[in-house]
């Protein structure tokens, strides 16, 4: 049984698997070419829901406005309707839509730019594997690390202790 050799092989496989996982999750790697509909399907569905809800809000708002004007024995005019619906729409967006937009959009932005609180911390695991490879066989370990670094780009993207 060749313990150091087996250990080195296991460490190399673990490191390669981690590097491959990091490459898949890395925003720096160019995605496969897709249609704009498939690549942004969630955004398109969200946009469709948004348009349907705004159109529905304004249609049912018209019926409510006509009923209100009838109860007051006033004619239903489009000018008053547009002002009232615009006010109601902006009030609704201010109280609900903008809060949700910041919570979801802000979180997505912070994840995208890589805030320290949103990172998975795979660089720490890579650094540990690097040190294990060096401990087992310093020369061979460093050559393996160098080879893997050249093969898989984008490693060690976290700045150590940047959250302090």
Give a written overview of the molecule.
- It is a single chain.
- The protein is mainly alpha-helical and 164 residues long.
- It contains six helices and no strands.
- Helix 1 runs antiparallel to helix 5 (122-136) and helix 5 packs antiparallel against helix 6 (138-151).
- The longest helix is centred in the middle third of the chain and has 36 residues, at 78-113.
- It is rod-shaped and about 90 Å long.
- The two termini are 45 Å apart.
- The model has no long low-confidence stretch (mean pLDDT 78).
Order of helices and strands: HHHHHH
Radius of gyration, whole Å: 28 Å
* Strand segment tally: 0
Helix content: over 70%
Share of β-strand residues: under 5%
What is the averaged pLDDT score? 78
**How many helices in DSSP terms?**
6
Characterize the main sheet. none
Q: Which structural category fits the helices and strands?
A: mainly alpha
Low-confidence stretches: none
**End-to-end CA span:** 45 Å
Envelope shape: rod-shaped
Helices and strands, with pairings:
Blueprint: H1 3-25, H2 36-39, H3 41-71, H4 78-113, H5 122-136, H6 138-151
Give keywords.
164 residues; mainly alpha
Summarize the structure.
This protein has six helices and no strands. With about 160 residues, the chain is an all-alpha fold.
């Amino acid at each position: 049984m060749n313990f150091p050799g087996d250990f080195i092989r296991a460490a190399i496989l673990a490191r390669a698997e981690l590097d491959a996982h990091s490459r898949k999750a890395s925003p720096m790697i160019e995605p496969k070419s897709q249609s704009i509909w498939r690549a942004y399907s969630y955004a398109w569905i969200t946009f469709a829901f948004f348009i349907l809800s705004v159109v529905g809000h304004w249609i049912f708002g018209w019926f409510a406005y006509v009923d209100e004007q009838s109860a007051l024995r006033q004619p239903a005019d489009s000018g008053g309707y547009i002002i009232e619906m615009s006010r109601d729409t902006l009030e609704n967006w201010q109280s609900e839509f903008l809060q949700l937009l910041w919570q979801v959009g802000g979180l997505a932005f912070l994840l995208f730019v890589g805030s320290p609180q949103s990172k998975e911390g795979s660089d720490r695991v890579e650094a540990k594997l690097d040190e294990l490879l060096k401990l087992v066989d310093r020369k061979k370990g460093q050559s393996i690390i160098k080879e893997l670094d050249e093969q898989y780009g984008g490693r060690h993207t976290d700045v150590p202790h940047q959250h302090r």
